């Protein structure tokens, strides 16, 4: 009975109730949509960071991490390679030859990370071939092909076919200069890394280093992100002489962003509901003041204070939850639309997002737990907002209230 009375009360002034429901709906829609954008940005940043740059796990010698010297190679590469190939927890891996060198073109001299790769292994690990914008993924016939990032290509004014000289130290400790020809230009989600990294064939770079294969970095992609720590611990016990690092140790900023994303969503929703709470409080308070005589009569004929409190509480909950439900439905509908098309922020920010490792096109993402959180926070807002108007009603003196006009 109390629910029916409360339901009918909110429609006694339909215009005011509909305005408040619409305000709650728009607020919840904005909260859900902004949260989905935030989740999409974080998910894309994590996925591209893992796939394109750091992978789930990296293996080096402890000395290579400190000094990045080409001589600090993984000695038992063949044994490690055989173990990785037979591990069901490993989807793919790539043994790389990393060298720090000096790039020289006709208009730029700059330090660069030269990465020698096995094209087949790298295709399944970093999917580098999917980021080729010009040229081919080592598909041409030119001698000593090199893939450079788009930002580096723009700075050096290089195109496919341009010649680049890179000077580096070989395994004998002597400086060696090698001439490469640009075979392709790639672009990942992080233009700063693209500017400092270039890829060459492992077989080509080994000719300049010496005939002995040099592998000083192993990038590993695991079956699931959740098993990374157990895989790291297992390999660290097998190869104690090597340093085996998970993604969150390699890139603490990526780990921090993952941890903070949930807190950011909660803060966004709380701010929106806090603002809506004041509007809701004003609406319910006006409703109480307009019904002072009616509330006095209800209490005079025997309606106890507990029921009066419950009636006002239900009215607030009805308005809030109807608005919240409509806001979540419209939010979900909006997310479904942009999940396929994405939102291109390059039109307003250019390539500035790429400088920080974010993709320009953001695809909203949502988790069912967000709707549970919105429902819980909306209900909490309704209850907290109803307390003050309800207390105002409870303090009425029935004898005085029935005389109010």
Describe it.
The chain has 405 residues and is of the alpha+beta class. Helix content is 56%, strand content 19%. It has 16 helices and 12 strands. The strands form 2 sheets. A 6-stranded mixed barrel has the order 2-3-8-5-7-6, surrounded by 4 helices. Helix 1 crosses helix 13 (305-341), helix 2 packs across helix 13 and helix 11 packs parallel to helix 15 (368-394). The chain is elongated. The two termini are 27 Å apart.
List the SSEs and their pairings.
Blueprint: H1 2-10, H2 14-54, E1 57-60, H3 62-67, H4 77-85, E2 90-104, E3 109-117, H5 119-125, E4 132-135, E5 145-149, H6 150-156, E6 163-169, E7 175-186, H7 191-196, E8 197-201, H8 202-209, E9 217-222, H9 228-238, E10 243-246, H10 247-250, H11 252-290, H12 292-300, H13 305-341, E11 343-344, H14 346-349, E12 361-362, H15 368-394, H16 398-401
Parallel strand pairs: 3-8, 5-7
Antiparallel strand pairs: 1-9, 1-10, 2-3, 2-6, 2-9, 4-7, 5-8, 6-7, 11-12
Helix pairs in contact: 1-13, 2-11, 2-13, 11-15, 13-15
Summarize the structure.
With 405 residues, this protein is α+β, with helices and mostly antiparallel strands. The chain is built from 16 helices and twelve strands.
Query: How are the strands ordered across the major sheet?
Result: 2-3-8-5-7-6
Q: Flag low-confidence runs.
A: none
**Strand percentage:** 15-25%
Rg, please? 31 Å
How would you classify the helix and strand content by structural class? alpha+beta
How far from one another are the termini?
Answer: 27 Å
How many H/I helical runs?
A: 16
Q: Tell me, rounded to a whole number, the average pLDDT.
A: 85
Range of helix content: 55-70%
SSE series: HHEHHEEHEEHEEHEHEHEHHHHEHEHH
Q: What is the number of E strands?
A: 12
Shape: elongated
Strand count, sense and barrel status of the largest sheet are: 6 strands, mixed, barrel
